[in-house]
Amino acid sequence: TSQGGTVPNFESTISDVTDTFKLFMYTFVPRNNVENIGVEVLCMDAPNSYIDIDIAAWKLELGAQQTLAHQDINGNWVLNDPPPNKALELLKCQRYLAAYRSAEIYNASVFFGTGILDGYDAEGNTSGQGYIVMPCAMRATPAIIGTAAIYSCVANAPIIRIDIIGVTGNVLRFNFTVTGQVSLEQRMCMIWTPGDFFITADL
After folding, report:
1. Residue-wise pLDDT tens digits, 116-145
2. What is the per-residue burial (b if ≥16 Cβ within 10 Å, else e) of 72-90?
3. Is the pTM of this model over 0.70?
């Protein structure tokens, strides 16, 4: 709107709408006292008969030349700065951090790792080995932050210590210790967290 309170309108009618993406550009010169500029897109094939269209992108910018898209060798319009792929961007983030959270709080999957109980240690606690399949390979050997526990047919007990053995691809291998004498025999167990459990390879 202008400082005087009036609303200057700049209208353009485009009738050449096709099934393929095309670039439409409209250049206008606003008044000197305009504070804000808004864009409204109305699509109709007849008066008061609206139609649906897909807008790949739009841009309001200064200058007589648009910088939104360019034509490739086949004449197709290609965005100069296309929207990022969300799945790829998530994997980039997960190279630095993989987060696992309590199912009761966050309605997520309960178990994120697998382990084997293999006997008692010198302090009388139960030891074991486990692994976690992470979403992707991390940028470096990670550290572990947070609380974890095991669930098995013989016990549901907290893990009091985790020592990383190594990483192969996106598989994290570790030794762990569970409070008390849970099982002297080898038994499978599942790894979960009652709160937050982070695998981090942050800078």
Report:
1. 988 777 777 888 999 999 999 999 999 999
2. eeeeeeeeeeeeeeeeeee
3. no
